[in-house]
Amino acid sequence: MTTPLDLAPAPGAAPLPRMILSQAGYEFRAVLRNGEQLLLTLIIPVVLLALFSATSLVDLGAGRRVDFLAPGILALAVMSTAFTGQAIGTGFERRYGVLKRLGATPLPRGGLIAAKTLSVVAVEAVQAAVVCAVALALGWHPHGDPASVVVLLLLGTAAFSGFGLLMAGTLRAEATLAAANLVYVLLLALGGVVFPLDRFPGGVRSALELLPISALSDGLRQVLQHGSAFPGKPLAVLAVWAVAGLVLAARFFRWE
Question: What DSSP string describes 209-245?
C-alpha cells in the first residue's frame, strides 16, 4: 500500500493577499533601485523645495516661503509617482510583454493593480517623509487637520494613477515617455506648485484651478498653511478627476 507524498511546500498558488504583498514589494524595490525614478520622485522635489525656499527667484507673496512651497512640493511628489513614474514604468512593462506574462501567473490582473497601488502609496510615504523632513529643517511649521491631508493625498493619488494607467495602456511606450514628461513639466509650471496661481489673469487662473495638481496643491495649502479642514472645492475637483481617470483606465487599458 502506497502512502501519499508529503510535499513541502504544498503545491498550489499562495493566498491572494500574500501574492499582492510580494508583488508590491518587488514594485517598491524596483523604484528605489531605478536612478531615473529616484531623480523624478525624490531628488527633483527636494531640490525645488530647497532652491525656492532659499532664494527669492519668485515672488510668493506675504508669509514664509517654505510655508507656501512645502504643500505644493508634496503635491508634486504625488504626481511624480502616481502619474509620471507609473505611466512610464507601466508603459514599458506593457511594451516588453511583462504585463502579459504576469497575467499568466496565479496573480490575477486585479491583484496586479492592487500591488501597483500599494507600491505607489509606499513610495509616496517615503517621499512625504523626506519632503517634510527637509521642509521642517528649512523652518516649516505645518498645522491643520491630518485627516484632511490624508484624504487629499489619497484622492490625488487616485486621480493621477487613473490617468497614468490610461496613458500607459493606450499609447506606445515611447509616446507615453514623452507625453508623461511633458505633462509633468507643464503641470509643474502651471499647477500652482512653485508659482502662485494669482499671478495669472482671472480667466486663466479659473481654468488652472480645475487641474488636479492645482486642486491638490491648493487643498494642502488650505489645510497645512491656513488650518482649514476638508476644503470643499479642491476635494470636489480631485474626486471628479479620480472617478474620470479610473473609469477611463478600466475601460480602455490594454494589457498587450
Answer: TTSHHHHHHHHHHHHHTT--SS-HHHHHHHHHHHHHH
Q: Is residue 173 part of a domain?
A: yes
List C-alpha distances in Å: 200 to 115, 133, 196, 206, 208. 40, 31, 8, 9, 9
Give residue 168's region: left, alpha or beta (phi > 0; psi -120 to 50).
Answer: alpha
Distance, CA of 210 to chain centre = 18
Is residue 234 a contact partner of residue 219, using CB atoms and an 8 Å limit?
yes
**How many structural domains does the chain have?**
1
What range defines the domain where residue 100 resides?
17-54+63-252
Task: Give CA–CA dist 78/120, Å, rounded.
Answer: 9
Task: Map grid coordinates 506675504 to a residue.
Answer: 62
At 54, list the grid cell.
Answer: 532659499
Question: Alpha-carbon distance 34 to 40, whole Å?
Answer: 10
In this prediction, residue 32 carries a pLDDT of 80
Average pLDDT of the chain is: 88
Reference 152, options 210, 215, 240, 69; nearest CA is 215
What is the distance between the alpha carbons of residues 99 and 122, in angstroms, rounded to a whole number?
21
Q: Is residue 10 part of a domain?
A: no
Model confidence pTM above 0.85: yes
